[in-house]
Amino acid sequence: MRRDGPWLRAAQGAGLLSPSGELQGTVFGEMSELARTTGAVNLGQGFPDYSGPRELLDEAIEAISRGENQYPPPRGTADLRLAIAEHQLRFRGVTLDPDREVLVTVGATEALAATVLGLVEPGEDIVVFEPHYDAYGALAHLADARLVTVPLRWPAFRPDHDELRRAVTDRTRLIIVNTPHNPTGAVLPRETLELVVELAARHGAIIVTDEVYEHLAFDGEHIALASLPGAASRTLSIGSGGKTFSVTGWKVGWVTGPATLIEAVLAVKQYLSYVGSGPFQPAVAVGLRLPEARFEEERDRLRAKRDLLVTALRSRGLETATPSAGYFAIADAASIGYTDATELCRRLPGEIGVVGIPVAALCTPERQGDYRSLVRFAFCKSDAVLEEGMRRLDRLGELSR
Ligand code: PMP
Ligand code: GLN
Fold this sequence. Notes:
This protein is α/β, with parallel strands linked by helices.
């Protein structure tokens, strides 16, 4: 049997081939599986261990009971598209036509996939910040595009604007911006976002802004890229009901932007999943219409968890960057004598009972060395779980080096 094809490029692009050529799962799946088999505290994959607001859960149950269990419309239910448009206007000042400029997807992941596959020709460049969410690398390779990365360096994780300028050229088709950023927790500053808009305009590129953590900026203001002058006509913005409302298994995402671009994304999306998550769509619409105070409450809850985790890691001798947003904090294992975080993260579940993600797994092979000793820990977990994880890390000193 042939063992080549786009899947192989995608797997290679995401670093999923073992040295002997076997396909491995994503680092998130692999680490969650290790947590299950060892009984370790899972501070790896970014999913909350609690459910979202009661109103959403009730609406999902009611939608199922009402019989909303068949295919929803290809672009998403009219009411959810309206709720997405209202939410963008309320929080970001961006006006959207819910019928032509909003598309509901199976999670932000499908929005990203359909966007890359629908808009990028083989050989074109996709510019991303690094480290990056693993799907960007895999999708770039699936599209036979070239991934060009701009590093966010430990510990401030601020982009160098000259490096960004050099990365964007006439070959660039997409600039994927992720703010707030996974895994670093950086909230990209206005000047960087303005530079992205300027470079995209100069080189005729499309901007894709992955804002799944938009409501989780603890320090600094999250700026929606599409709200900047000159951005809207060339920007696709991606959001996630799963991340916004702590229901990651529901897989309701969306992409918004100019009607012609949305049409291109829809053309691919309809042959990936066609539609999805029927009864969860009305539930996410309820969430998007919650009062502002509820979004703030959730953000403040997460901020307290961030503080708990960062303080605990530091008190165990681990140098830790304070994330400005999101679900994750990054610690440098070199500060306690481990230079290879990938090896450390494979040992931690079995030997100490904690799961973390090696940041190098979220990097291109050429740059993995720069992130070799960094570990990402998720703090979107109940306080009891975080505290148990930290208790277990007290035994770090017992690990052989
Ligand atoms: N983008 C980023 C930056 C993420 O961290 C994730 C993971 N939740 C996604 C996209 C995918 O989101 P979803 O679960 O809605 O597919
Ligand atoms: N976004 C989540 C993370 O970064 C995981 C999503 C996934 O497993 N694909 O941990």
